[in-house]
Amino acid sequence: VNELKEWALGFLGELDVKMKEKELQARYEAEKIDISLPAAEEKEGNLLPYITTSNLYWDCFKLDDLKQMYFLDSELEKCTAKKGDLLVCEGGDVGRSAIWDKDYNICLQNHIHKLRPYSAEIKVRFYFYYLMLLKLTGEVNGKGIGLKGLSANALNTMLIPLPPIEEQQRIVEKLNQILPLIDEYGKEEDELIALCQNFPEEM
Fold this sequence. Notes:
Elements: E1 8-11, E2 17-19, H1 24-31, E3 46-51, E4 56-57, E5 60-61, E6 67-71, H2 73-76, E7 80-81, E8 86-89, E9 97-99, E10 106-108, E11 112-117, H3 124-136, H4 152-156, E12 159-162, H5 165-198
Parallel strand pairs: 3-10
Antiparallel strand pairs: 1-12, 2-11, 3-6, 4-5, 7-10, 8-9, 8-11
């Protein structure tokens, strides 16, 4: 109980976390950019690969089908993720998240939020796990927060805990140990269920 007294509560947008501004949607929709068939002589800026919600999965990325789009130099800062950024789906599987762990930067589409801590007292993986908890308990699923999507405003005003950095680290280390075991037990349970369903035909 005494340790919990050291935990603070605050809004995500006030915990030294900078969220990606989302100003490109109207421009890209208005211009009707065909990102599948880029025409270099008609576009401006830099033609760069970018990730969409279809590339972002829980704690991992699938990068074998990246699309490309033109980005102006003035857009790159707010539309680029760097190593350590927490990326969150706004729509689709609302709240699905992963930490960008590559040694190179990547551009983002406008349906992905970028959360970047600007304080040494914030451990990104702790908040990744916290978002996963909210998703599993139904508090973030497009319904629990009263929205069909997870807007930047909804994220900024989300009430979250801020334990001491040592406690964040302890929780992360424990979950890093436990979650792979849960996944393994889940696979074994599925195999056992399948075996029971097919018994005695496969004897």
